[in-house]
Design a protein that fits this description.
Layout (H helix, E strand, L loop, with lengths): L1 E2 L24 H6 L2 E5 L3 H13 L4 E5 L5 H8 L3 E5 L7 H15 L4 E5 L4 H9 L4 E4 L4 H79 L8 H28 L11 E4 H18 L3 E5 L6 E4 L1 H17 L5 E8 L3 E8 L33 H12 L2 E7 L3 E9 L5
Parallel strand pairs: 2-3, 2-4, 4-5, 5-6, 8-10
Antiparallel strand pairs: 1-3, 7-9, 10-11, 11-13, 12-13
Helix pairs in contact: 6-7, 8-9, 9-10
The structure holds adenosine-5'-diphosphate.
Length: 421
């Protein structure tokens, strides 16, 4: 039967009297004294003596028993922070009690068992240690030493529980923050998808009437509907050139909106690299002529056959060439086709304004432009290079850029040997 103390009234909070939620410092000693202690010793006199020492030292929650069969039920009723356990007892001995309580002791993290024993042999110590004991005190023991050991073990338990609770709190915060970030990310992705869809729908809507405007302006310009005065001719030419400018811009937005991850399929086929380059130069020839820029194709010494989607390669080259034309006030634009054993590279070089080193990292971002879009002279939505990047990614091609402010730029796109036939 229990000697002295008795279990506290009402169901004890799980995991002992030490509050893992509270901080450590202000009343550490009070917390240690508030700890619950279970004492099991088959000698009633020992139980009374130890209880007396502990109560005098300020420990209020001490439950003792000299009947070892009560140890496990008392443990569950009392939820101690520390167990003082005799080893040699009739019936259930200290080893058996530790064995029965092993799951609880292990699950707790740090539940100290202080063994009080007359048998201080190495073998007894080893057995007790392997069953979860944390410390030993040989009988007969010194009261001060007993108090010190108890104090230290409880102190360590308190620190341990505070640490565990802080860890738990941190983990909780990390979990909350991660889930907030996931939500924010999916909201941002949703918004980005909505924006892209809007761009795509608007571009389609704009393209239809624009095609009508351009074709009618060209029809009038060709004078099949009747002769035009010089002024009228100039007017329709302007309508059609402004129309083409808008049409290009809309195409750029559509290309951007149908970037990587869309349903558009790759259509790989064999083609000659230099021929494709020459075709792209032909498309931008009039824009270059308008600015008196020379366009030069530097082909490889021998024909180079490639196997990839030529429409997308053409789109990349056209974007790079029209940038080169846009940002080169005078001089030459060169399109080189280079062949090495492992790759084919298209390189668009210009003698233009160049790009400052601090801007080179951002030029591929959508809508990003070196100059303020509201004040700059050149047109464009800032999407050309981002389209180049998404198309290159889709084709598995590598991009490169070298540039010197005031001296010109060179953009390259490289296809590995596997894409060349
Ligand atoms: P856009 O040409 O429509 O402005 P891009 O995405 O094609 O958009 O290019 C982004 C920016 O990179 C351009 O606004 C320009 O500032 C810079 N840039 C691109 N190509 C060149 C080039 N060849 N020479 C100088 N600057 C360039």
């Amino acid at each position: 039967m229990p000697v002295g103390g008795g279990p506290p009234s009402g169901p004890p909070p799980s995991g002992g009297a030490i509050d893992p939620e509270s901080g450590l410092l202000p009343d550490l000693d009070d917390r240690i004294r508030a700890a619950r202690i279970l004492l099991v010793d088959d000698e009633p006199a020992n139980v009374r003596f130890i209880e007396h020492i502990l109560r005098r030292a300020g420990y209020a929650e001490v439950v003792g028993t000299s009947d070892s069969s009560e140890a496990v039920p008392l443990f569950h009723a009392h939820k101690p922070d520390l167990i003082l356990l005799d080893l040699q007892m009739p019936g259930l001995d200290g080893f058996a009690i530790m064995e029965r309580l092993r799951p609880e002791i292990t699950a707790d993290g740090f539940l100290p068992v202080l063994v009080l024993t007359g048998d201080t042999s190495a073998e007894a110590k080893q057995r007790a240690l392997s069953r979860g004991a944390m410390d030993f005190l040989g009988k007969p023991f010194d009261a001060v030493e007993l108090q010190l050991r108890i104090h230290n073990l409880l102190h360590t338990r308190l620190l341990h529980r505070a640490l565990a609770s802080q860890n738990q709190e941190l983990e909780e915060r990390v979990r909350e923050r991660t889930s907030e970030l996931h939500e924010a990310l999916s909201r941002a992705e949703e918004a980005s998808r909505a924006k892209t869809k809007f761009l795509s729908v608007m571009s389609h809507e704009l393209r239809t009437p624009l095609t009508g405007i351009i074709s009618h302006a060209e029809l009038l310009g060709s004078e099949v509907c009747g002769p035009l005065t010089t002024l009228q001719h100039e007017g329709v030419t302007r309508i059609s050139s402004a129309g083409w400018h808008l049409a290009n811009l809309i195409q750029e937005i559509l290309d951007f909106a149908s970037g990587v991850g869309t349903t558009e399929k790759l259509r790989p086929e064999s083609f000659d690299a230099a021929e494709l380059a020459s075709e792209a130069l032909g498309i931008v020839a009039s824009a270059a002529a308008e600015r008196s820029l020379r366009l030069t194709l530097i082909p490889p010494p021998e024909a180079v056959s490639m196997f990839t989607d030529p429409t997308r390669v053409r789109r990349i080259l056209l974007n790079l060439l029209s940038n080169a034309i846009k940002f080169t006030p005078r001089g030459e634009i060169r399109l080189r086709v280079l062949r090495t054993a492992a790759a084919v590279t298209f390189r668009v070089e210009d003698d233009g304004i160049g790009i400052a080193p601090e801007h080179l990292g951002r030029i591929w971002d959508p809508f990003w432009q070196v100059e303020d879009p509201l004040t700059r002279r050149e047109g464009g939505a800032g999407l050309g290079l981002s389209v180049v990047r998404s198309q290159a990614q889709l084709l598995g091609a590598a991009l490169g850029v070298e540039s010197r402010l005031g001296a010109g730029s060179a953009f390259s796109v490289t296809f590995r040997a596997a894409q060349n036939a």
